[in-house]
């Protein structure tokens, strides 16, 4: 059921107990289309992560659970449930569904590899000199499930992508890169980790990076449709930011390949979705 507004008495009582507030359990939905793993494989890791976060927030056991989806549609559907108060999502997912799901960015998830994400567009060497050369081509990659994200964010600084360029989703780029190297009219979008491995491919000499995007957030922790009262959200933000300060917290972060959670960078958020989106719905 939907979380009820707190009355003054339990709020004061909760503050006296150090912020441990007895409320309905909530769910953190993690969705990053194209990432590795699936819901079943990820669940043990997420159970441990949720337990570490609720402990750091001084919440009772069972207050927080987490679930992961590697595909957009089931993730979006789960976020429509009233107990899904929090979302940890990739930039393409946020761009595509922020309005429909009322996603309010609160913190940025920082990967072990460093803050921010940059996408590289890779094609057959010497073929693509400008966006107009992509006419009639296919552009594919993990970010491709949101064609408008690719056009309006990732490639916007380069120029206008032709309307007849087809943008598609592909979770595994290796086959696409092989096809591109062989001369097919195909360009492949790679995230930072994928682009770093490009030089190890046996056909790497046949490929080149023709454009790199600006930096966007690697992941955004969002409040969903104001389903979590601000005092409880503040406690969660404090707990997440403090995870990197303890051995148990660092282990929990490492299980998700993260180094920590930090305030959202307003510039990267503006680059992602424009100035109309606030940098944070909360300022703890």
Major beta sheet, specifics? 6 strands, mixed
Counting structural domains, the number is 2
Question: What is the radius of gyration computed over CA atoms, rounded to a whole number of angstroms?
Answer: 20 Å
Quote the beta fraction. 15-25%
Large-scale geometry: elongated
Helix/strand/pairing class, anyone?
alpha/beta
Structure description:
The chain is 35% helix and 22% strand. The chain is α/β, with parallel strands linked by helices. The protein folds into two domains: 8-115 and 216-273, D-Maltodextrin-Binding Protein, domain 2; 120-212, D-Maltodextrin-Binding Protein, domain 2 (3-Layer(aba) Sandwich), CATH 3.40.190. The strands form two sheets. It has a six-stranded mixed sheet with strand order 2-1-3-10-4-11. Strands 7-6-8-5-9 form a five-stranded mixed sheet, with helices on both faces. Helix 5 (147-154) links the parallel strand 6 and strand 7 (166-169). Helix 2 crosses helix 8 and helix 2 runs antiparallel to helix 9. The two termini are 27 Å apart. Mean pLDDT is 87; it is low at 1-22 and 274-284.
Give short descriptive properties of this protein.
single chain; 284 residues; alpha/beta; D-Maltodextrin-Binding Protein, domain 2; 2 domains; six-stranded mixed sheet; five-stranded mixed sheet; 11 strands; 22% strand; disordered N terminus; disordered C terminus
């Amino acid at each position: 059921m939907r979380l009820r507004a707190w009355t003054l008495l339990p709020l004061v009582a909760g503050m006296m107990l150090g912020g441990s507030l007895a409320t309905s359990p909530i769910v953190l939905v993690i969705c990053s289309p194209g990432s590795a793993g699936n819901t079943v494989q990820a669940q043990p890791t997420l159970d441990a992560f949720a337990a570490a976060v609720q402990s750091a927030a001084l919440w009772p056991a069972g207050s927080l659970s987490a679930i992961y989806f590697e595909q957009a549609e089931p993730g979006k559907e789960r976020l429509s449930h009233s107990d899904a108060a929090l979302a940890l999502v990739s930039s393409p997912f946020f761009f595509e569904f922020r309005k429909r799901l009322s996603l309010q960015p609160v913190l940025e998830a920082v990967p072990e590899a460093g803050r921010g994400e940059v996408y590289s567009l890779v094609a057959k060497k010497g073929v693509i000199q400008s966006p107009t050369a992509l006419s009639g081509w296919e552009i594919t990659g993990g970010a491709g499930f949101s064609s408008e994200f690719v056009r309006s964010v990732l490639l916007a600084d380069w120029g206008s992508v032709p309307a007849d360029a087809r943008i598609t989703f592909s979770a595994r780029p290796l086959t696409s890169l092989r096809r591109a190297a062989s001369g097919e009219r195909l360009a492949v979008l790679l995230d930072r980790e994928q682009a770093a491995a490009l030089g190890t491919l046996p056909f790497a000499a046949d490929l080149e990076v023709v454009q790199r995007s600006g930096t966007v957030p690697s992941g955004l922790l969002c409040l969903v449709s104001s389903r979590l009262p601000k005092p409880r959200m503040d406690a969660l933000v404090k707990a997440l930011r403090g995870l990197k300060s303890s051995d148990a917290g660092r282990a929990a972060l490492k299980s998700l390949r993260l180094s920590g959670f930090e305030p959202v960078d307003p510039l990267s958020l503006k680059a992602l979705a424009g100035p109309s989106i606030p940098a944070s719905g909360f300022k703890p």
